[in-house]
Write a structure and sequence with these properties.
Distance between the termini: 75 Å
Oligomer: single chain
Order of helices and strands: HEHEHEHEHEH
Number of domains: 1
Strand order of the largest sheet: 1-5-4-2-3
Number of helices: 6
Strand content: 5-15%
């Protein structure tokens, strides 16, 4: 009986260690107040929309403008990641924003699960909800 208990413990320990080694960070899904707090702490906000979208709605002041998908839905992952590396690293906290939160939700999950970024966050419901809530934007020239 004691041998079975020890064996069960050892198996449980290995399962726990194995499962922890495959755990990736959880993508942060932020509301407007959380976004403001993190930006106040100096966490970079990266607006992945197109130039036309930035001009249409404005941007959150202090955003880094780094288009992911172009107007036709195409992207260049290598270039985008290279440009992202000039703003942040895999181990530092950052925030993504788009129009509605759909694109940033997908990109955040990809960065987290496939590329091992540790502290990815995105604004739920995007710039549309930001503006709807009365939060300020600035114009883009």
């Amino acid at each position: 009986m004691i041998k079975n208990t020890k064996l069960s413990f050892i198996i449980a320990l290995f399962v726990t260690i194995f499962s922890l080694s495959n755990v990736s960070a959880e993508v942060g899904q932020l509301n407007n107040d959380q976004l403001k707090q993190l930006m106040a702490e100096g966490v970079p906000l990266i607006d992945i929309r197109t130039a036309g979208e930035w001009k249409e709605t404005g941007i959150v002041k202090g955003s880094h403008l780094l288009t992911f998908f172009d107007e036709r839905g195409k992207y260049n992952m290598d270039k985008w990641l290279s440009d992202l590396s000039k703003i942040t690293t895999k181990n530092k906290k950052f925030i993504l924003i788009c129009r509605s939160g759909n694109r940033t939700g997908q990109i955040s999950q990809f960065l987290d699960k496939k590329l091992d970024y540790k502290q990815v966050n995105h604004l739920q419901r995007g710039i549309i909800n930001w503006i709807k809530a009365g939060d300020k934007v600035v114009s883009v020239k």
